[in-house]
Structure formats: C-alpha cells, structure tokens
Amino acid sequence: MQIVFKDYHIRCDRAKIYLKTKRVYMSGRVLMTQTKSTIGGDQIWFDYESNTGVISKGFVQSGNVIFEGELINKTGENDYYVVKADYTTCTNCPASWSFQGSQIRAELGGYAYIKNSFLKFGGVPVFWIPYLIVPLKSDRQTGLLTPEFESSQAGGLTVSQPLFWVISRNEDLTYTFKNYELRGAKNLINYRYMLNADSYGELSTGWLRDKVFQNEDRVNRFRNDEHKGDGFNRWFIKYDHYTQLPNDYIHRMQINNASDLQYPKDFSRETRNHNEPSFENRMSLTKNFENIHANIDTAYHLNMLKSDPLSGNDESVHRVPELRVSQMTEPLFKNSSLLYSWDLNYLNLARAGKSYDDMTYDSVNKLRFPTNSCNSADYDRDPACALVSDGEYNPYTDLIRTGQRLDFKPTLSYPINLNDTVDILPKVSYRETQYQFQLTDDYSRLYRRYLKTEVSARTQLTQIYSTSNDLKGTKLRHEVIPQVTYTKTPWVDRKEHPFWGFDKDNQTEIPFTSQDGISDGDLASPFGLQFDYLDRSLDREIVTFSVLQRLTEKSWEGNAPVYKQLASLSLSQSYDVYQSNLNSSTKQPWSNIAAYLNVNLDSFSTSSLVNYYPYQKVSNVSSSARFTNKFGNFFELGLNKTYEITPGKDVDSSKRTEDYIFRAGLITKYFNLIGQFVYDGNWLNNSKNKRIKSWAYVSQFKPPGECWLITLAQYQVTSGTQELKLSFEFTFDGNSKPPLTNEALDQIIN
C-alpha cells in the first residue's frame, strides 16, 4: 500500500492508522521518503503530528549519509537515536568504511555522537574508539581532522594531528601537532580571516627544537668550537593581508621570515620561497582618485644568498619607502586632442651597513666582487674569509648601494587618425632625476635631465572566415597589427659620476639590449650597476619594429555570442641608432628578437616566450605545451632556458639554466595521478652533477563508494631531500571530494 501525507511518500505491506492519536503503525518493507531523507525498516511506529517515531531493524539515509540499527528512535525533524548502529557515507555494499557503535545520537545537518565505536574497513573492525563526534554537514565546524603521515630522509617517520577551530563566521584556525622521528616535536598554526568579501588575511607560523640541524656541518662550520652542536629553536612566520579601506584605499601586507636561511630548504611547503634570493617583507597603501593613482610601498629583505644560515643582514638593501604618484592621460584643455600625463617617483634605499661596498676587480677573470681577506669571489663559502673595508670610498672600484632618488616625468601626446586606417601617436617627455648619496661631498649629489621624443604608427588588417552561411555559424577573425616606433633623446644633461660607470673613451652608453636583465655581469661592465631600470638611459635613438597577429573564434550558445581567442603571435626587435654611431668595440645596435606565442585550443594549448640575441647567437626560452583529452588526462612539456647576457661580451654557456619540465595527469574512476620532474640540461656544470633537479607526484586512490580518499605524495625540491606524505580524507557529510588539480602539485613543488 502507499500513503501520501504532507511531504512524505510511504510504501509498506501493511499499515494501521490511529486517527485520534495521529499515529500510524507500518510493517513489511516499510519505506518513508521525503525531500531530505529516506527512512526504512521492518516495522515503524510513526507520530505524524510530532514527526517522531520508532524504527525496528531499519535505516535512515540523507544524501550519502546512512545509519542502520536494531532500533532507531526518531526524536525530531532531523534528530535520531540509534542502538547497535552502523554509520557510513559509502554508497557501496559492503561499505568501504563504517563506524559501528553501541549508541549513535545524530542530527542530520549537524553532528553524530558515537559511543564505543569500531572503525571498520569492508566490514572488518580495525580500530576501537571510545567516543567519536563526526560532522554531518558541509559547514565549517570545530574538531579533529584526520591525521597525516610523512617520511623524509632528514626527519624520519612523521605523524601530524591537526585540530580545526571555528572561531567565528569569518575566522578559523588550524593547530597541528607534528612529531618528527629524528627532528623532534613541532607546533604549527594557520589562522585565516575575512573582514568582508574584499578583505582577508592568513597567518602561518611554526616552531621546533630541531635535533638534526644543530649537528649538521652546514651550520656548525660557521660556528666556533665552543658553540658547535648547540641547539636552538627554529621557526618561521608567514603573513599575507589584503583589505579594501573606505574612500578607495587598499592596504597590503606581506611578512615572510624564519629563524635561519636554511629553513626554506628544509620546510619548503611552509615558507613557500625556496630557491628565491631573499625573504621579502612588504607593506603598501594605494589610493585611487578619479584621475590619479598614488602608492606608497616599503620592502624589507632578508638576504638568502649567504652560506652561513645564521649570518647577519647588515648588507641587505631595503626600500623604505618608495612613493609613486601617476596622473592618467587626459586632455590638456577642454575638448582638446592634446593630452598630458605625469609620473612622480621617490625612492629611498637604506641598509644597516655602510652605504657602499668595497669592491675588488679581477682583471684576469674580468670579475668584480666584494673585497675580502681571501681575495676570492667565493669568499662567502669559506668561514675563514671576512669582508674587508678600507674606510674610504673609492669611486673607481666601490659600488654605491644606498641613496635617495626623486624622479619626475611629464608627457604630452597628440593622437592622430588617418582615414580610419593608420593611427599615429607623437609624444614628448621631460625627465628630471635628482640623487642624494651618503658619500663624500664630491660624490654626494647627482642629477640627470633629458628630453625624449617618440612617434609611433600602427595599422590593422582584418579578415573574417566563416564555416557556413548560417548567421549563427562559427566565424574566425584574423588580425594583423604592424607597428613601428621611433624614439630619440635630443638633449641630455647629466653630471659625471661613478654611479653611471666609467669608460675610457667616454662614448659608450648602455645598449638598448641591457633592459632585458641586470646580472652579476653588469658589475664588471663599463655601465656599472645602478638601483634599477629607471636609472638607465636606454633609448637615446631607437627604432622598434613589431607585428601582432590574433585569431579569434566567434560561436553561439543559444542566442548569445561567445568569443574565444584561439591564438596570438607577436614579434618585435629594436635598432639602436645611437649605438651604431659610437666608436666602441662593444656596440651592439640590434636588440634581441622577442617572440611570444599563445595557443588555446580544446585539446592543445601552448605559451612560449623566446628572446633571440643575434650577437651572442643564443636564445632565452620559456615555453610549455599541454595536450588534454576529454576525460581531463593531460601531458605537458616545458622548457626554461636562460643565458646570462652582458652586452659586448661572449656568453658563458656553462652558466646557463636549462630545465626540461615533464608533467602528466591521469584521471580515472578510482585512481588519480599527477606528477612532474625537472631534468637539468646543464647538469654537468651544476654543483651536484644531478640530472634530475626536482620531482614530485601526488596519487589519489578513490575506493568504491565515493566516501573517502587516500592521498600519497612524494617529492624532492631542488637541492632538497626526499619526502613522503600519506593522508586520508573521509567524507563524513556525504559530499564527495573534488579530484586532483594542478594546484595540488604546485603546492608541493613551489
């Protein structure tokens, strides 16, 4: 028989209804279905007014959450009390896992409280728990998370037990107690908050008394005999904050610090800056007016390029602060085509040590390095070596590191359009830059001012291709946009100063190609090393040629058009006319040829940036290509190849970076796998002669039932040790966990 009452649909073999007491007795294959749950059993006594009842040898199911028991007492709309019960969220039979308890008190959409429970896998009891609370809802809730197991060469077997704490609607915290077999016990805290939809922050910190690190040579060789082997606390702190304030102010803060410079190598997943040159700590405040953008930014750096993990930080240079104000382009007069804009920049570079570095020049190897007692460019690796200072600034050898700079650059432009075919944009800019250094009176002040003119012309050629005559048929649009730009600096007034470098014939200027990178090679070049690109005069007379091609697809979804850029290709090169007229053996007027290709198809995508240097006859390449099928499986190839380019010098190919990246992902019903390894194409010249620079994989086993995941990750970051991590994820609320993504691998290797 069938009974329909309110939102219940009831089926059973027999039923007896008591109208006066508003109760019903049902027996024989009873099944009560409503919107949120299903109740079944051999017999059910049900009070349909209070929505309570008793189920004999039955079950309750809500989504994938299932309770079974000898006797189930329904005490409310979503409340149940179960005797001799099983609880699971697995859809297979027998369930992949379940909890069997003497008593279960459950609230659907809340929690289940289980007494005297056994965790069973495939129906086999494996672990006894005296009391257990599990969530039956997907909302954030306080409680213990599943433990994690790790193994590493340095730390040994490691067990982690996280505790998740819901502080409020917009705050939560995860505390993790982590015990290393070899290193010792560690405490980790991860705190997250949201002030509103556009303002949020995250703080992570951890500390331990590392019993392994204190005995390693990488720290003890820099300590005296009295303190070798002494223990000390190792810690890290990482904080990121973003908030939008009233009146269009934006505040950002980033803190990244650790007890020692080797911490990111040992615990790369915590600080997230392994292989970076410094710990960067920044704070900025941005204000957007109607036509003006203003920003004040400070940055404090901890130098990670030192061999001594406990070394001081007196040599690091910090921005405290940098102020930028920019006026957007707008008409100079009302309804005028003459436009203006301006940029103002103030920079203060400071550090704890002296304002310059004492430098030594090695004429044989053409190297310039800090003066030290060992007279070696690799002095930092030898504990017996120390920096040496003569106490006087030598303008011909020493390097200026700190100072103040004020730069102002107004610009006028006048856009011209010829018959809707050619766009011409002439510009004229004036730049005034003032410097203040903490040096002797002869070298304490510096100025530079110049006038720069520029004119650019571009046009656009377009062709439409259609796959059918249908108005809603797929169409392809091919665009070709050539452009030529001529830049000339007709007037320059610049005070002679060691900040600009020295050259015998006083004719060599910095080539335009120098904008592509600043490296150690600049230290020994005639151009010297300034603060940043703004200090360099790169465009005395430049002609730049470029062409951009785009292929765009237009398709339809119902009555709405959908646009997708399938491919784009850009090529550019510049010719330095000023360099070509100099009487210098180092002149290189042609710049690198820059090419950028981006393709985005359904099953194939690629992004490639190539810079070819015609004089060095080498190319810097950053490229990746991915092949994907309809199931989400993919295979990706990548290449990062970089040479150190110094204008006027040959390339030392032994110092190149040449990484071949192989990444693949496999997605199946019961198993996911994503992995990557990096092959060092220059392994013969690296310090450890290892062909594989780094590798990682994350495997995910999804047993039948869609109720839990077993994740195994193993990885080795560059110059790091192997680590293995095992974790379990139970879906207590019945909502299936998402499959693996690229981010799961990136969180390990980056």
Mean pLDDT over the residues? 89
**Tertiary shape:** globular
**What Rg, in angstroms, do the CA atoms define?**
34 Å
Report the end-to-end length measured between terminal Cα atoms: 62 Å
Sheet/helix structural class: mainly beta
- Low-pLDDT sequence parts: none
Largest sheet features: 26 strands, antiparallel, barrel
Counted by DSSP, the helix tally is 5
Question: In total, how many beta strands?
Answer: 44
Approximate strand percentage: over 45%
Q: Which bin fits the share of residues in helices?
A: under 10%
Tell me what the structure shows.
The structure is a single chain. The chain has 750 residues and is mainly beta. Among the domains are: 2-137, Lipopolysaccharide (LPS) transport protein A like domain (lipopolysaccharide transport protein A fold); 460-621 and 638-655, no CATH class. It is built from five helices and 44 strands. The strands form four sheets. The protein has a 26-stranded antiparallel β-barrel. Strands 1, 2, 3, 4, 5, 6, 7, 8, 9, 10 and 11 form an eleven-stranded antiparallel beta sheet that branches. The protein has a two-stranded antiparallel ribbon with strand order 24-27. The longest helix is centred in the last third of the chain and has 8 residues, at 742-749. The model has no long low-confidence stretch (mean pLDDT 89).
